[in-house]
Amino acid sequence: MTGNPSDLDTGKVERSKSQQLVNGRYDAEDIKVLKGLEGVRRRPAMYIGDTGTKGLHHLIFEVLDNSVDEAIAGFADYIKVTFFEDGSVQIKDNGRGIPVDNHKEYDKPAVEVIMEHLHSGGKFDNKSYKISGGLHGVGLSVVNALAEWLVVEINRDGHCYTQRFAKGYKASEPEITPCDEDQHGTLIRFFPDSEIFTFDSEDEETFNFDTIANRMRELAFLTPQAKFEIYNRITEEREVFHYEGGLKEFIKHLNQDKKSLHNQIIHIQDNYEEKGDVVEIEIAMQYTQGYQTNLLTYCNTINTIEGGTHLTGFKSALTRTLNSYVEEFMAKKYQKHSLSGSDTREGLSAVISIKLPDPQFESQTKIKLGNPEARQAVSQVLSDELMKFLEQNPDVGQKIVKKSIDAKKAREAAKKARQLIRRKSALDNARMPGKLADCSSSNPEECEIFIVEGDSAGGSAKQGRDRTYQAILPIRGKILNVEKARIDRILRNNEIQAIIKALGVGIQGVSEEDFDIEKLRYHKVIIFCDADVDGAHIETLLLTFFFRYMRPLIDNGYLYVAAPPLYKLSYRSTEQYVYTDKQRDKVMEEIVDKYDLENRSSIKIKRYKGLGEMSPDELYRTTMNKETRILKRIVYEDHLETDQTFTRLMGKEVTPRKKFIINNYDEVNILDI
């Protein structure tokens, strides 16, 4: 990692801290101006989020966004991403092609200006692009700055224009050759700079096919006028995405493993105009018979994963409209119910896509929308059009309202259960739930809690831990599968109550304000299960709970899984713990070579299936000691894919799970029958 956005006020000025520390002075000579794209190379995380795999894929997304802008503008209908054997990636479209004529201010071709200067491009005057996802004009220049080499090929006006760049600068003069008048578009191929990007392991892939394919599928739903193709020349994998049905097909995709509450997908499309500015709004939504809510928001095809004003407008309008529908069209026995936002969203899958000329994103990584007009636009359009739909389709309206009322009853029951947990917390602090053995430190940054499978392992962990900063919470058996339960039933589960009380953050899904990540008592929450099939199942149940009801723990990097050893190998004075079968075989060969043995039979092998089989000292040395343990941080690349995986594997519907098992049976390497 090279830096954090909070480290600097600007990417172009850096203080010489060493000088300040030596002599205490801070004046003009301590100011260093980074020229051109040097600021990007010095602080890449400011522009692409990080210098690991996430930032690496962001480079592709920046180029891809530009191609999509051409499609939105009506000039491109084909976009292709290709992975090459040398580790480079190519993005090609059949749009107009980047301008290559001379830029008067800089007296050089426009493409060179775009590649070598931040905040340059055709997206600032709303003439070339009325709607644009690549808003800031820093996309291509940042990709260029962080690429070991980059080649651009532009076809337009009967000429093919090819030029090479490297690490932010021009590396060759342009080569211009004739081409067919009908040929047009832009091709960009680049290789990421190994001086910039770092990875967690040597085996980590440079680019991940599925990560890019998922984003391209998403773009295909949002841009039905274009066909998207991704091709890996190494593995011969190929995917083509083209959805003429747009957002309606997106909803079908989201709900493919769920049982719908109503067959008809609600589709709303309209423009909202205020003071001459037009906001294009498209919404598709469908309720399912499940309990999970899945709201996806986009602005100019950019996935605003933290929502923003368009999401706020959607939520408020949905609640207001359904309450109005109850008052005007439902029987009196239903009119006593006043629905909250969480009531009206239970089981809802919705995609909210807006397009506007001047989006205000929170940062270059575009995760949250701030335009105030987006809230009013979405709210007004949804209120008007949804009420019309419900009036014309009363059977759908009745089903939605009745489900929302059931959700309200469950929420009220859950609220009582939540209050009961709080009262118990206040009255019973000396004896925390689930036999929690707390740590003595009260500093969350240094504290960690092990959620341990079983009382036996919990007892060993309590004896072996460092009591200063390590807390132990044993849980009994398999916790409730929250994917199949409503929130009221979830909160009645003793083990889940214990986890909620111990962590101190509350739980999402009861009310909007009932979760506060700032109250987390431990900044390492560690799932600690046996290395067998039952342990894997309990681990999966816990991960399902955290993803559905405490996801900010994952998003903020607080959730981990401990990796206990599978084997202990012993021969004479040699004793070694190993964590995989492959590592076991390697260590055995090393022992054979070291002691010149005829065979392996004299090497003692102990297979650990349960944590309780280890002594407290052994458990601490192998799995809890900061110096020697292995912890795996829980992360996910793509929320949409992760959401669907939990639905498919842990949800009510059996058919998708059966299909998954049949399709993936040959990848099973541990089978306990």
Detailed description of the structure:
With about 675 residues, the chain is α+β, with helices and mostly antiparallel strands. Strand 5 and strand 6 form a beta hairpin.
CATH superfamily of the domain at 45-241: Histidine kinase-like ATPase, C-terminal domain
* Helical proportion, percent range: 25-40%
Strand content: 15-25%
| CATH class descriptor of the domain at 45-241 | Alpha Beta
Total number of beta strands = 26
Q: What does the overall shape look like?
A: globular
Structural class per helix/strand content? alpha+beta
Distance between the amino and carboxyl termini: 44 Å
Total helical elements: 22
What is the CATH architecture annotation of the domain at 45-241?
Answer: 2-Layer Sandwich
Can you tell me the CATH topology of the domain at 45-241?
Heat Shock Protein 90
The pLDDT mean sits at 86
Low-confidence stretches: 1-23, 25-34, 426-431
Major pleated sheet: 9 strands, mixed
Radius of gyration: 28 Å
Brief descriptors of the model:
five-stranded mixed sheet, disordered N terminus, 673 residues, 26 strands, single chain, alpha+beta, Ribosomal Protein S5, domain 2, globular, nine-stranded mixed sheet
TL;DR of this structure?
This protein has 673 residues and is an alpha+beta fold. The chain has 22 helices and 26 strands. Strand 3 and strand 4 form a beta hairpin.
